[in-house]
């Protein structure tokens, strides 16, 4: 079941009506059953995996809480991590490694007949395994106590608004909200409804409409001119933001309606001026997860400069691989790591620091412009079908730009039409530095934006029910 | 006091919201009317008028320019309410008239009038030295199914004094169209309450048809309500006319189509005209890529698709009628390699598609002797 489907809307209306009528414990049971139904609507067979992940990590955390010796605690921790990484590795990366190994052996002239199995990717596996892993690690570190209530832990893992595409929640934040009775304020309802409406707008009006522009450029066997590649990359830059931020907004909005606060996952990521800032504003829940559970345990920036650079590269390459089992994701991770390493190196020069952090108008605009295009190029790598296509499209941009060949009606106009309302609202939110600025605007402005958003979605939205890009991760 | 103040505050906010919604409605309506290009556009809707017998028909004397990304055509409706740049008038000596009834595939708003298969057919049949002049009248109306074709002939086209009436059955949806018009075919009088409801619905439909914003919202609402019925039973796969095992409604529709054609042939015969049935296929029956795409969609919905299922069923249904039946599918399929026969977005015939249809139809009419006024293979 996807958020941008009528199935979900009816599902949520029914669940919410019952939710408001139930006492706290009943609400938790309802959330669990609704979440399992939500997940089973894709493929009920993977419900077993979700249940296994819940039971194993619940048990490991309980065992950690009751265990005294450090060696025993460490063994339990590695049992949990081993289980989660095995599940993730098998379901997400088996096909990738098997295919690449086969290709490698074949290229060496070895005829190997693999017994190949096609492993299906369970939706949302990367999100909920990361959540349960972080929970067990936090219990191991004694940052939080293990919960005794299996029902509450099961709701934490399966909670349907974030189950399949995040944000990646921390137990320290969500478990107390599940444990305590929830009060729903009028402001939460207003903010929640706006986040849902804006989420649908980002997905149905922006992402799914500009997807056609991006797809036209990334089609295989086509070599568009550089200017058209650039327009297509801009389109994908908007598409992936609209798609992912749209999902997060709907997840946050539905949660607010139920009295649950989820973390902010995006905060104007395309308005930043440095790679470091970008990762503080883009997919915040993943970048903080990678920081807390990978980069810092690797040593972070506590060692030598070269060790820090290595840690950054390892973190970003694994971050890239987290997105999917493909060489383009690994390449994207290397690219992001290189940007961070390059940025750290640049920090040593005074002029660079002033350019990236200075308050002057020229510095602000130029550093933003450069960073925005570096981000766009990252999305080119991310969206490309192969490393070869990355090369072809890069060559088009730098070797065959031809500004006069821009496809005005097919690419540019659809992109501008669907981007303009987003840019206007986004600029307003950025001005107030608040992603929830709209519900706090004067009533006439606020109502005008509400009405225009609804009209734009209903009249021009793409109701094809395209899946969210991040479901595949 | 506080409660009154709160209520006043809410009332004024509600009023403000209504005003904003109304103002934006006007803005979006204006924008869509200026730049929109769907059939909901006023340029297209201006072609139609209400009709007590037919629900609606082409507005006599209407003239409009219809632009979409795929085509840009001038549409002229003559004073008799058919797409023609000439008036019909009384039949001249030596003139043979062919009236082509049908839906949007016949009306063909996607191409200029001289490119329609009716006009091309007229050109092909008017060979020098034949001793008579053939006039082909395009009596197609957007959305008309078999029952409306019968009613249109009865109330409008019979006055054109045809020698031949061509009934064009679009096999893709005419069975379903016939079911909708079953009461009018069978002459069942609606109950008083139903009549009031129908009048209100007609007025509402007319209102909705005039607004492009409301047209789109109506489509969204239909989609939204459809899902409510899904939990009550499995969803019906699309393209039921082509399903390996269609629902009962399709068989009923084919039977009603047969009845409508039979009555039309009787009425045409009484007016001295012969009737020919032409079966028009859907695009995917000709276009392999389109077929592959639809096959996947139907399979995903749990159904099965027989590419020529609808054509076979109609042929079978008309098999024992004493009327010549001509299937356009073989001619279109034979011409399929090469430029498109159907538009990509509207799935209607391109100018080349019209040429192929006109050539095939002319050959059929000549071979059957109908073009020269000879006896049909079997006929009334």
Structure explained in plain terms:
The complex is a heterodimer of chains A (473) and B (380). By secondary structure, chain A is mostly helical. Chain A has 2 domains: 6-181, no CATH class; 187-472, no CATH class. Chain A has helices at residues 6-21, 24-43, 47-66, 70-107, 125-140, 150-158, 171-179, 186-218, 226-257, 275-281, 284-298, 305-323, 327-346, 350-357, 361-383, 387-399, 408-432, 443-460. Chain A starts with 5 loop residues before the first helix and ends in a 13-residue tail after the last helix. Chain B folds into 2 domains: 1-35; 42-188 and 237-367, SGNH hydrolase (Rossmann fold, 3-Layer(aba) Sandwich), CATH 3.40.50.1110. Chain B is built from 14 helices and 9 strands. In chain B, helix 5 packs parallel to helix 10. Chain B starts with a helix and ends in a 13-residue tail after the last helix. At the A-B interface, helix 1 and helix 18 of A face helix 1 and helix 9 of B.
Descriptive keywords:
heterodimer, A: 473 residues, mainly alpha, 2 domains, 18 helices, 72% helix, B: 380 residues, alpha/beta, Rossmann fold, two-stranded antiparallel sheet, 14 helices, 9 strands, 47% helix, globular, disordered C terminus
Write the layout of secondary structure elements.
The complex is a heterodimer of chains A (473) and B (380).
Chain A: H1 6-21, H2 24-43, H3 47-66, H4 70-107, H5 125-140, H6 150-158, H7 171-179, H8 186-218, H9 226-257, H10 275-281, H11 284-298, H12 305-323, H13 327-346, H14 350-357, H15 361-383, H16 387-399, H17 408-432, H18 443-460
Helix pairs in contact in A: 1-2, 2-6, 3-4, 3-5, 3-6, 4-5, 6-7, 8-9, 8-17, 8-18, 9-15, 9-16, 9-17, 11-12, 12-13, 13-15, 14-15
Chain B: H1 2-35, H2 42-45, E1 48-51, E2 55-58, E3 63-67, E4 72-76, E5 95-102, H3 104-107, H4 117-125, E6 133-140, H5 146-155, E7 164-170, H6 174-180, H7 182-186, H8 192-210, H9 212-229, H10 248-270, E8 274-280, H11 288-300, H12 309-318, E9 325-327, H13 329-334, H14 351-367
Parallel strand pairs in B: 5-6, 5-7, 7-8, 8-9
Antiparallel strand pairs in B: 1-2, 3-4
């Amino acid at each position: 079941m996807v958020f941008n489907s009528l199935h979900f809307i009816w599902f949520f209306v029914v669940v919410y009506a019952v939710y408001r009528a139930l006492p706290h414990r009943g609400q938790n049971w309802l959330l669990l059953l609704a979440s399992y139904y939500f997940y089973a609507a894709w493929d009920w067979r993977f419900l077993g995996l979700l249940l296994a992940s819940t039971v194993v990590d619940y048990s490991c955390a309980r065992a950690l809480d009751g265990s005294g010796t450090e060696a025993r605690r460490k063994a339990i921790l590695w049992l949990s991590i081993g289980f989660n990484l095995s599940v993730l590795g098998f379901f997400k990366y088996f096909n990738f490694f098997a295919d690449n190994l086969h290709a490698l052996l074949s290229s060496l002239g070895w005829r190997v007949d693999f017994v190949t199995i096609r492993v299906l990717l369970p939706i949302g596996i990367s999100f909920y395994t990361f959540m349960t892993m972080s929970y067990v690690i936090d219990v191991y570190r004694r940052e939080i106590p293990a919960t005794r209530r299996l029902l509450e832990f099961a709701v934490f893992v399966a909670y349907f608004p974030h189950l399949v595409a995040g944000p990646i929640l921390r137990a320290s934040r969500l478990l107390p909200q599940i444990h305590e009775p929830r009060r729903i304020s009028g402001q939460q309802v207003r903010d929640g409804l706006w986040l849902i409406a804006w989420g649908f707008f980002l997905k149905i009006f922006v992402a799914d409409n500009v997807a056609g522009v991006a797809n036209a450029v990334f089609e295989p066997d086509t070599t568009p001119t550089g200017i058209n590649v650039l327009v297509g990359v801009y389109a994908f830059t908007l598409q992936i933001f609209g798609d992912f931020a749209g999902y997060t907004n709907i997840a946050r909005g539905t949660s607010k309606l139920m009295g649950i606060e989820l973390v902010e996952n995006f905060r104007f990521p395309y308005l930043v001026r440095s790679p470091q800032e970008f990762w503080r504003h883009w997919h915040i829940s993943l970048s903080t997860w990678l920081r807390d559970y990978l980069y810092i345990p690797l040593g972070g920036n506590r060692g030598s400069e070269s060790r820090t650079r290595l840690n950054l590269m390892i973190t970003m390459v694994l971050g890239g691989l987290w997105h999917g089992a493909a060489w383009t994701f690994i390449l994207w991770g290397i690219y992001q790591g290189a940007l961070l390493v390059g940025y750290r190196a640049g920090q040593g020069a005074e002029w660079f620091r002033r350019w990236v952090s200075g308050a002057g108008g020229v510095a602000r605009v130029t550093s933003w412009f450069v960073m925005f295009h570096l981000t766009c190029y990252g999305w080119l790598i991310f969206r490309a079908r192969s490393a070869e296509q990355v090369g072809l499209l890069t060559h088009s941009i730098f070797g065959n730009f031809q500004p006069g060949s821009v496809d005005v009606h097919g690419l540019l106009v659809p992109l501008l039409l669907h981007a303009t309302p987003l840019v206007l609202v986004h600029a307003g939110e950025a001005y107030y530095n608040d992603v929830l600025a709209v519900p706090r605007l004067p009533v006439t402005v606020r109502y005008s934006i509400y009405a225009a958003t609804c009209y734009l979605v209903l009249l021009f939205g793409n109701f094809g029910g395209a899946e969210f890009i991040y479901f595949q991760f | 006091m506080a409660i009154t103040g709160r209520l006043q505050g809410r009332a004024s906010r509600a009023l403000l919201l209504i005003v904003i919604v109304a103002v934006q409605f006007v803005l979006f309506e204006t924008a869509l009317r200026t730049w929109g290009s769907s059939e909901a556009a006023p340029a297209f809707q201006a072609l139609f008028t209400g009709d007590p017998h037919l629900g609606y028909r082409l507005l006599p004397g209407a003239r409009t320019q219809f632009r979409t990304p795929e085509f840009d055509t001038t549409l002229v409706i003559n004073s008799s309410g058919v797409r023609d740049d000439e008036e019909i008038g009384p039949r001249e000596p030596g003139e043979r008239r062919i009236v082509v009834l049908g839906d949007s595939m016949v009306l063909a708003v996607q191409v200029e009038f001289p490119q329609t298969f009716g006009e091309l057919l007229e050109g092909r049949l008017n060979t020098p030295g034949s001793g008579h002049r053939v006039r082909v009248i395009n009596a197609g109306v957007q959305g008309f199914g078999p029952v409306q074709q019968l009613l249109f002939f009865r109330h409008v086209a019979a006055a054109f004094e045809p020698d031949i009436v061509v009934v064009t059955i679009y096999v893709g949806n005419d069975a379903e169209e016939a079911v909708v018009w079953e009461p009018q075919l069978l002459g069942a009088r609606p109950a008083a309450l139903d009549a009031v409801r129908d009048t209100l619905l007609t007025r509402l439909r007319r209102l909705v048809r005039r607004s492009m914003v409301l047209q789109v919202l109506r489509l969204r609402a239909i989609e939204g309500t459809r899902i409510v019925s899904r939990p009550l039973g499995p969803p019906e796969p699309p393209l039921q006319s082509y399903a390996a095992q269609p629902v009962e409604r399709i068989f009923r529709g084919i039977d009603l189509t047969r009845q409508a054609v039979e009555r039309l042939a009787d009425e045409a015969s009484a007016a001295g005209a012969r009737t020919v049935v032409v079966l028009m296929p859907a695009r995917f029956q000709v276009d392999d890529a389109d077929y592959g795409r639809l096959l996947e969609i139907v399979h995903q919905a749990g159904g099965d698709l027989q590419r020529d299922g609808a054509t076979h069923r109609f042929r079978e249904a008309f098999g024992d009628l004493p009327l010549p039946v001509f299937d356009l599918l073989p001619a279109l399929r034979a011409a399929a390699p090469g430029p498109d026969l159907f538009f990509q977005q509207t799935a209607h015939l391109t100018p080349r598609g019209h040429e192929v249809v006109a050539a095939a139809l002319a050959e059929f009419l000549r071979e059957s002797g109908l073009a020269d006024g000879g006896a049909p293979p079997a006929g009334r």
